Amino acid sequence: MLAGWVHRRRDHGGLIFVDLRDREGIVQIVFDPKRSGDAFHSAETLRHEDVVQIEGTVALRPPEMVNPNLATGEVEVYATRLTVLNRAKTPPFVIRDEINVGEELRLRYRYLDLRRPRMQRNLHIRHRTIKFIRDWLDARGFWEIETPILIKSTPEGARDFLVPSRLQPGKFYALPQSPQQLKQLLMVSGIDRYFQIARCFRDEDLRGDRQPEFTQLDLEMAFVEAEDVMALNEALMTELVQTVTPHKRIKQTPFPRLTYAEAMERYGSDKPDLRFGMELIDVAAVWAETDFRAFKGVIESGGRVKAIVAPGLATYSRKQISELEDLAKGWGAKGLAWVKVEEGGTLSGGVARFLENVRDAFLQTTGAQPGDLVLMVADTADVVHEVLGRLRLELGDRLGLRDKDELAFVWIVDFPLVEWNEDEGRWDAVHHPFTSPKPEDIPLLDTDPGKVRAQAYDLAGNGWELAGGSIRIHRRDVQAKMFQLLNIDEATAQERFGHMLEAFEYGAPPHGGIAWGIDRVVMVLADEPNIREVIAFPKTASGADLMTGAPSEVDPKQLEELHLKIVLPEREPASSAE
Q1: How many domains does the chain have?
Q2: Which residues form the Aminoacyl-transfer RNA synthetases class-II family profile domain (predicted)?
């Protein structure tokens, strides 16, 4: 007996073929009037997405009728009985992988979108990923412990989602941005190895790899150093890939390591895609010997001039190069300089005329070969790295260098502990205020905070940040010094984090951990372009749930019980025509 949805019906003049679909795939059902009886006449009325139950006999297909594209392509079922369990309206789009329909319509009817084989495959990968993680960590002595969803608001990162308290008017809970403080308190509690598949919430602007609610693997260990945490997570990721997506190749193990500074210099990103080269090259010294004032001015003002070499793209037309220039400007560059390398090493086009006297040095520095296109940006280090880092990925796609079946993982280490916030005139934590500085750098907290390195580590893969963690501060005096550096006064620190500071006085062990972005990890394993494709019921870029209509207004009585009043912003008066 089989049950599922009618994927397709074909009437071949005397025989009716129905493709029956469930989460395991598709099987062909044959209705023959000589063998199916009344079921044949019922099959004539079937429509797409009707829910049916079939009884029949499994038979091998004739060799010439075998379908190699189906897992069940060697067999078919001759139906003897058909029960229609539920009729379906015509769906707003065809339930198959190859559809040309907008995402809004897909999200409006997400329960139909999830019937598509691709979406079912994604959810299955997600299920297997989480199950593997749970089993793997359990076998290594980790306890899964749930932490509260309603917690205290301690704003130190993205905006909190706030939940008003009915029983304590005027007071609010926050939904956790992560269980960061709670997992550290579990270490103080003597739970040496903790993990959780945690739901987290951040009220921030959305993009392809962000959602207002998301899932983390949250993991913490006591009495460890950074090497212990990294080694365990590297083993977990390696075995996860080999088990859940065995068709994928891990480019290099052990995973390579780059310092934050090295990653930015070479790839323009702290989450570089190492499936291909095309590294950023410093060409400031070459340009300093030319008369090109635009670049020399940037160099003299302390800026940077860097290049990337696009192999074989000297064939690009002026129109194609203009498209790259537009992309660069959209990412913040004032322009995009370029030059082509011709046969014999001669330079042509773009800014080639300014390089005539330094051609050999330019070619030696860049390593460019005949047929290559060299692209350059001059600006502050931040702009140069942002633009060329993104341009590198764009060209990697165009040149087919980002093999989807290869996974290139890399650890990024030695992040700065803090960064200067020019707008606020203060230091901000690069990760979070509980990240421990390297012990040898602690004296610099008082003299040169910008040079203090964090005991932090990120795991990147294929251009995505997949996990991030650190060794935590476990001493109250060091934590107090960190708060002071971040311009959090003693009263504010006590009000926001007093529970942690007090806990540190009762014997907090050294500890550290990491958090994986489960949605991003599954996205990479499933070869999807954004995390919405691996979440069952995601929100849109504006945070809306198109299927249920959330967020929505609520009954005024609910607001009254919560002692809340809605005050909407005043609308700008419409301008009148003169």
Answers
A1: 4
A2: 123-538
Range of the domain at 305: 276-402
Q: Known binding site: residues? A: 156, 202-204, 211, 431, 465, 472, 517-520
Q: Tokens 């959810």, residue?
A: 123
CATH of the domain at 291: 3.30.1360.30
DSSP letter for each residue of 13-34: SS-EEEEEEETTEEEEEEE-HH
- The one-letter amino acid code at 58 reads V
Q: Is 114 in the same domain as 254?
A: yes
φ, ψ at 540 (rounded to 5°) = -80, 180
Q: Are residues 480 and 349 part of one domain?
A: no
For the annotated binding site for L-aspartate, the residues are 156, 202, 431, 472
Place of tokens 């709670």: 182
Query: pTM of the predicted model, to two decimals?
Result: 0.92
Produce one character per residue of 314-353: b if its CB has 16 or more CB atoms within 10 Å, e if not. Answer: bebeeeebeebbeebeebebeebbbbbbeeeeebebbbbe
- In terms of domains, do 178 and 230 share one? yes
Q: Of 238, 250, 236, 233, nearest to 469 (Cα)?
A: 233
Q: Where are the alpha helices (DSSP H) in 345-423?
A: 359-366, 381-398
Q: Is residue 483 situated within a structural domain?
A: yes
Is 91 among the domain residues?
Answer: no
Residue 80 lies inside a defined structural domain of this protein:
yes
Q: Decide if 341 is inside a domain.
A: yes
Q: How far apart are CA 69 and CA 371, in angstroms?
A: 41
Could you tell me which residues come within 8 angstroms of residue 332 by beta carbon, excluding any fewer than 6 positions away? 379, 383, 386, 387
Q: Are residue 176 and residue 243 in the same domain, yes or no? A: yes
Nearby residues of 46 by Cβ (< 8 Å), 6 or more positions away: 6, 9, 18, 52, 84
Sign of CA dihedral 417, 420, 426, 429: negative
Mean pLDDT per block of 10 residues along the chain (578 residues) reads: 96 92 94 93 95 96 91 94 97 93 96 96 98 98 97 82 95 95 96 97 80 96 97 98 97 97 97 97 96 94 97 96 97 97 95 95 97 98 97 97 97 95 88 92 91 96 97 91 89 89 93 97 96 96 93 94 91 55
Phi and psi torsions of 26, nearest 5°: -130, 140
**Residue 135 near residue 195 (C-beta atoms within 8 A):** no
Contact 283, 289 (CB under 8 A): no
The C-alpha atoms of residue 480 and residue 501 are separated, in whole angstroms, by 8
157 CA to centre of own chain: 18
Q: Please, where are the H alpha helices in 415-489?
A: 444-447, 476-485
Same domain, yes or no: 117 and 249: yes
Task: Kindly state the greatest CA–CA separation across the chain.
Answer: 91
- Tell whether omega for the bond before 439 is within 30 degrees of 0, i.e. cis: no
Positions at the binding site for ATP: 202-204, 211, 465, 517-520
Q: What is the CATH number of the domain that holds 75?
A: 2.40.50.140
Angle at 560 between CA 558 and CA 561, to 5 degrees: 65
The answer on 514 and 502 residing in a single domain is no
